[in-house]
Structure prediction request, 383 residues.
Amino acid sequence: MSYTPTPADKFTFGLWTVGNMGRDPFGEPVRQSRSAAEIVHALAEVGAYGVNFHDNDLVPIDATAAERDQIVKEFKQALADTGLVVPMATTNLFTDPAFKDGAFTANDPAVRAYALHKTMRAIDLGVECGAKVYVFWGGREGVETDAAKDPLEAIKRFREALNFLCAYAKDQGYDLKFALEPKPNEPRGDIYLATVGHALALIATLDDPSMVGVNPEVAHEQMAGLNFLHGVAQAWDAGKLFHIDLNDQAFGRYDQDFRFGAVNLKSAFFLVKFLEEVGYAGSRHFDAHAYRTEGYEGVQDFARGCMRTYLILKEKARQWAADGEIQALLAEINGGDQSAPVYSRAAAAELKGRAFDRRALGARNLGYERLDQLTVDLLLGVR
Ligand code: GCO
Ligand code: MN
Ligand code: MN
Prediction:
């Protein structure tokens, strides 16, 4: 097994991830800035399939129309030279001070209007570069104090903005889907639409729910103390897994954005297993950063590592599915007639009248300890 990425793996990175210069709240950048074209070439070298961007990762916020066109031309040339594609694009609605109180949920209607203006232009840019998925991460859509904003009003404003932008994209004839990316906090004290579940509930209330799904991120659900796989499964069940942000994170820490699989290998395994087994066909997007200790050589090590770990775990998932002992245990665990009872008066009466051996049900040894250890053995390479 060489674990060499191919375009079929759909591995993507953001300009902002491999272009990240290592600035943090306590320290200045440790790496030089690189042009979008340089980043595209570096990604092609490590075998990535695609590159995603925020409007201002590519075009500076103050660029003139002529500068914009020149930058886009050079970027497209780099894509053509390397064969990389742009599956996803998004808007930076968080860096500029105008967005210090949020974008779509800001209390100032002029800020909300500016956010729509900026997003429509960023959608145009993304579509021009080939994007089919448009991500909404509401980094500043939140509060430090609930005295400042009515949460009901915030949800209403978010909904109105999404309805407006869905209508815009359709009116332009764009082949585009939207994906909401939930996060519980950072950079705001609390961010609205904190988890995958919150986002799914909002989507159901939109004018056209079919156009909007989610972009769950490993670190974000873990920051909320949640099981990422369960959120992803719920999104998949709802037909809403339009995109996914892969990275890693220790529970209870700051927003670490580590290399995929760097911390919670077992969770990463069950995630990869899930995505591969259900046949998720979207991008595997690594929204993570190299350690601040690294130069650009280390950034490439980081990018290679994300993809390599994914491919190793994919192979482990295949082994798990083909492992006789594991499968025998699973067959035992899932034995019996697993079909759900279909309601009828007769079926309900029969079920109500049925005698159960409650003690026997409670006394069964389920074998989950053995199953989990077999999984651990397999992951550690001794099976
Ligand atoms: C974060 C987010 C962002 C978004 C990006 C694309 O924690 O900063 O994950 O990286 O994914 O803005 O929408
Ligand atoms: Mn994140
Ligand atoms: Mn993300």
